[in-house]
């Protein structure tokens, strides 16, 4: 992958209205996603939830952090950073956020702090970054097909 920004940046010769709307929407989408993730991970867990599915909470953690890293990487790329730098920043942010999330959960009576949850967060963030790179590859392919 080259060190260029995603084709939604303001210097792109092919700026379509939907791309510019996406560029404006990504920070709001990311902020909403973070608020939702914090809220969901701090709500009390109802008794008997997911009794039949062991470790389903790890899948939920991974899914939340996959989406989070994808959104953050996309936002950073459209505004500030190269693709690789955006991916690294998004991954590190997710790790720090996951650690802070687990720390704050340790103060809640209905939640517990778990290193395995933090590992699931990291795996999910890595999956999100992989999806981000696949999205970039697809995007470039569709851009070159349009030329």
> Count of helices?
4
The helix content, as a percent range, equals over 70%
Label the structural class: mainly alpha
Rg over C-alpha atoms, rounded to the nearest angstrom: 17 Å
Overall spatial form: elongated
The succession of helices and strands, N to C, reads HHHH
Q: Could you give the count of β-strands?
A: 0
Main sheet properties? none
Q: How far is it from the N-terminal to the C-terminal residue, by CA? A: 20 Å
Oligomer: single chain
Poorly predicted spans: 1-5
Report mean pLDDT, rounded to a whole number: 81
Residue fraction in strands: under 5%
Q: What characteristics describe this protein?
A:
147 residues; mainly alpha; 4 helices; 71% helix; disordered N terminus
Short description:
This protein is mainly α and 147 residues long. The chain has helices at residues 17-42, 56-79, 83-105, 115-146.
Account of the 3D structure:
- The protein has 147 residues and is mainly α.
- 71% of the residues lie in helices and 0% in strands.
- It contains 4 helices and no strands.
- Helix 1 runs antiparallel to helix 2 and helix 3 runs antiparallel to helix 4.
- The chain is elongated and about 50 Å long.
- The two termini are 20 Å apart.
Layout of strands and helices, then pairs:
Layout: H1 17-42, H2 56-79, H3 83-105, H4 115-146
């Amino acid at each position: 992958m080259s060190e260029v920004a995603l084709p939604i940046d303001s210097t792109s010769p092919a700026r379509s209205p939907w791309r510019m709307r996406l560029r404006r929407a990504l920070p709001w989408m990311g902020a909403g996603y973070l608020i939702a993730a914090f809220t969901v991970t701090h709500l009390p867990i109802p008794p008997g939830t997911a009794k039949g599915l062991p470790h389903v909470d790890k899948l939920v953690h991974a899914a939340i952090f996959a989406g989070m890293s994808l959104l953050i990487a996309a936002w950073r790329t459209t505004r500030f950073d190269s693709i690789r730098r955006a991916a690294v920043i998004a991954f590190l942010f997710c790790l720090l956020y996951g650690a802070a999330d687990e720390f704050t959960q340790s103060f809640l009576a209905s939640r517990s702090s778990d290193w395995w949850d933090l590992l699931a967060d990291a795996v999910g963030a890595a999956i999100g970054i992989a999806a981000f790179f696949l999205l970039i590859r697809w995007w470039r392919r569709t851009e070159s097909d349009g030329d």
